[in-house]
Amino acid sequence: MADLHIGIDVGGTNTDAVVLDAGGRVIAKAKRPTTPEVTDGLRAALDAVLEMIEDRARVGRVMLGTTHATNAILERRGLGRVAVVRLGAPATTSVPPLSDWPDDLRKAVSAGEAIVPGGHYVDGREISPLDLDAVRRFLDGVRADAVAVTSVFSPADDGHERRVAELVRAEYGLPVSVSCEIGSLGLLERENATVLNAALYGVAGHVTEALVTALAERGLGARPYLAQNDGTLMTLEHAARLPVATIGSGPANSLRGAAYLSGVADAVVVDVGGTSTDLGVLAGGFPRESAAAVEIGGVLTNFRMPDILAIALGGGTVVRPHGLGPDSVGYRIRSEALVFGGATATMTDAAVAAGRVPPGGDDWRDRLMGDMSEEKADILESAVTRADEMVIDAVDRMTLGRSDRPLVAVGGGAFLLPDHLPGVSRVIRPEHAEVANAVGAAIALASGRVDTILPAGDSRADAIESAKEEARARAVAAGADPAGVEIVDLLEVPLSYLSEPAVRVHVKAAGPLAR
């Protein structure tokens, strides 16, 4: 019986893995250093938890949250060349595609850009008829690995994008990224996200192939999934089409894992890693989403991302006489930190000196304080004070003045946090908190979204029902069981500045994975 689930999360310092049984209990867990080639760390963490279970045939699903896509963008590595097509002439020619991109990223990604006639006004009228011959002339003159198509107001009417996508697949045989599936309103940000998605097709292929190969090499017949940036899952087929959706999956996994392990649906979550600390807010058990455009690698995008505040504070953060970080020893902490016999003072050393010791580290303080000068003790004490101030300030920024919510401390460096913090009702330290991100991947649901504009007339109710059905269908396409899909979020925003009344509608559907 395939009743076990494995969750794996690739972080900047460690790769974590857990095994959950049919009752949702953690029966195995492991942390392994994240390697320069991150799939090596993935395999090591997978092997570690497999050794802790007796029957590998019981593993039915493996869920992966990975930094591959994020790293590729940040490092300008492994990205495909994209032909960028905007459907919006003559209305949008004053701001060309990718004009706000960093030069090095644009050079790495763009195979050429064109603005051709097409697109719609917000009320559904055409800006100009779609010119497919202009699209052909542009594509005939470029060499690209993929095509990104963005049409003005495609969330309201995606007809022009779909027609161009059909042409590209039929006549050029290239993969196509269409903006109506990726971003929301805001032409430039949606276009940016669509181009990044197209540039990540090769990276997505590498990740999915590595995961499938790793499972096959170990004789696992488990079905693989990838984690999305909203704390839900998608099939490998879905991920291959929308790889940009995996960006931000790590923090989202931590938030979902924190909710599951603590049993708290509304809370501030502080995930302390080796290099950084991520803060987020749980609302109904899911990550609160960012209302602002999200910058990735110097590019503004507008697809849904968790509202995360990251600060340069982690267990490996280097402590100096007159400063704290922002650099970190990262995965080298077990050879460089003072508590492990190294020569570099880190936040782990400072926390241990203050009596904040992780589970299983009872002898760390004796080892550290055995040869501690008064000067070094003062430096470490000052570092703890500064770190607490950073966390208190970050919590205040995330809670927006509300102090009635608890704080859930997770991550391998959660012991750095004090037991009491102003701005929260209490501090919760759940069991298995150090692998909350992997737990979040293992328990995640599959989801689908629709973000569109609807007329505010008598037909609005029918249109909203249609949007709900589309969200449910997208959740099923991502891997959800059709019988278990529910609408978990419905947001209506009147657009009062239009000549004709309209409503922006955002619908999210989610459900358990299909068996």
TrEMBL record:
InterPro entries hit by this protein: ATPase_NBD (IPR043129), Hydant_A_N (IPR008040), Hydantoinase_A (IPR002821), Oxoprolinase-like (IPR045079)
Gene3D superfamilies hit by this protein: 3.30.420.40
Positions of the Hydantoinase/oxoprolinase N-terminal domain: 5-171
Domain Hydantoinase A/oxoprolinase: 190-445
SUPFAM superfamilies hit by this protein: Actin-like ATPase domain
Domain of life: Bacteria
Pfam families: Hydant_A_N, Hydantoinase_A
PANTHER family per UniProt: 5-OXOPROLINASE RELATED (PTHR11365), HYDANTOINASE_OXOPROLINASE (PTHR11365:SF10)
Identification of the protein by name: Hydantoinase/oxoprolinase family protein
Organism: Nonomuraea composti
